[in-house]
Design goal:
51 residues; alpha+beta; three-stranded antiparallel sheet; elongated
């Protein structure tokens, strides 16, 4: 899962990535410990220039 900021750039800026496991197989694939756990990794936004 990706959280995307629609800032007019093509493609839009990705601001975070998320992981969620729906099954025990998903838990193995994501490294999460339960199906009720959600993990997000936020990306540092690039510096912007104003025109």
């Amino acid at each position: 899962m990706s959280i995307i900021k629609p800032d007019g750039m093509i493609p839009p800026t990705v601001t975070a990535f998320g992981r969620i496991a729906l099954t025990s197989r998903g838990m193995e694939q994501t490294g999460l410990s339960s199906t009720s756990e959600i993990e997000f990794e936020y990306k540092k936004a690039p510096a912007t220039s104003h025109k």
